[in-house]
Amino acid sequence: WLMPLVGFLMDTTLAAGNGAVTFDGTINSSPTARTLNVNTTGATTFNGSIGATNNLTSLTTLGTNTFANGIVVEAPILLSGTTTFDGGAVTFDGTINSTGGARDLTINGATGGSVFNGALGNSSSLQSLTVAPTSGGAITVAGNVTTSGAQSYTNAGGFNIGGTFTASSNPISFTGPVTLTGNTTIATQGAVTFANAVNGGFG
Question: Peptide bond before 4: cis, by omega within 30 degrees of 0?
């Protein structure tokens, strides 16, 4: 399936079996926030922005997902496959969790300035989290992050963090300046690395 500009007038489910689904245009709700479910075990690719004009209430996908531009979602997201955000800044006001087993989440490309206001892996942990934008400003991680594997954060623009970062016995690393915006806990038996300065009046 290849879909250009999309505006959803109602809650929508797209079913494609094991076929690939590609959105080349922007995706918005119209006129009020809507849910979008993409049901395919094949690859789903979002080449345009999502919710930049009228946000979605939730987004659920199956299979492997690639987001090549910005996204704004105010409600929970369920990751059913390996997921990569590789475009503009992303804003998540809701939680992000795995479903059907722990999933890998990667944030790279020009995603500096992204904001995670909700918890990641709070009800069903992520497998791993890799944050490595190639450009943009500081990334904000305001909620708790839980993974069964490693967490790696690399950003020359830095990070604003406040919450609990849990990775079982796996490593958690930050490369780039870190500012604590709230009380912060690193909970892992693995190695913990802060490669640059850590600032802020919180512990």
Answer: no
Closest to 177 (Cα-Cα) out of 192, 202, 199: 199
Instruction: Tell me the CA distances in angstroms from 71 to 41, 87, 101, 199, one per residue in order.
Output: 22, 9, 24, 29
What is the distance between the terminal CA atoms of the chain, rounded to a whole angstrom? 49
Partnered with residue 176 across adjacent β-strands are none
* CB-based burial label for 199 (10 Å; 0-12, 13-18, 19+): exposed
Highest mean pLDDT among 37-41, 61-65, 159-163: 159-163
Contact 158, 136 (CB under 8 A): no
37: CB partners within 8 A, 6+ apart: 12, 13, 14, 59, 60, 61
Dihedral sign of CA atoms 163, 167, 170, 175 in order = negative
Q: Are 114 and 138 in contact (CB under 8 A)?
A: no
For 5, the token pair is 């500009």
Distance CA 54, CA 70 (A): 13
DSSP code, position 18: T
Residue 167, pLDDT > 90, answer yes
pTM value is 0.80
The residue whose two tokens read 């796996």 is 170
**98-108 average pLDDT score:** 86
